[in-house]
Design a protein that fits this description.
259 residues, alpha/beta, seven-stranded parallel β-sheet, 9 helices, 15 strands
Amino acid sequence: MSRDARWKALLELLVDRGRLDVEEAAGELRVSAATIRRDFDQLAEQQMLVRTRGGAVVHGVSYELPLRYKTARHASEKQRIAKAVADLIAPGEAVGLTGGTTTTEVARALAVRGDLASGSPALTVVTNALNIANELAVRPQFKIVVTGGVARAQSYELIGPLADGVLSQITMDVAVLGVVSFDVTHGAAAHDEAEAAINRLLCERAERVVVAADSSKLGRRAFARICGSESVDTLVTDTAAGADTVRRLEEAGIRVITV
């Protein structure tokens, strides 16, 4: 296992459990305790965790794993969701993409669609995610609009009032939201309030709103509300979504697509 893969696995275990012992982590990853100690020390230097005697704990009370360290957990579900979301977007439309692992997969799915290989433009993509803009900028048939703002290291998203000036001047056909949680009662939410504010503005400027979220995000709550469930037209999720959850969403008027 490479160091990067090991670090990703360690951080995800830490997020899930809140605390890890060296011996426990070594057993999980099938590496030596000395290797885990070095990993913990190096991750602590990057302020990704807090070193303790014999192990590590998460950094801070509310922890969000930075995008660059997120592994391919639920990867196949996210790729299926991304393709289904991409299929909802028509050539020539203006689409807003928030940051996140699932929306990044949506951008990749759009990039390889044959009917979007040419056009003037084939698609207009508005995003506050630097990594998405970077990936799509090499597609000359796509018109890429970046919101502006201050970069947030955890998600590569641009946040803050500088983005308002761009978003207030445009309209979009569809906004695709990557979320931390989505629930009928509490709506769509993110970890960070500034990130949620930009995502909310993207929703307000779009004719329709699509939430792209694997089933692990459903029925949960997160700190910063993006929008209420009444603002969402379509949810695309995976087939592991509970039948009761799907029923409640559909009763609220949301189209649910499971893939």
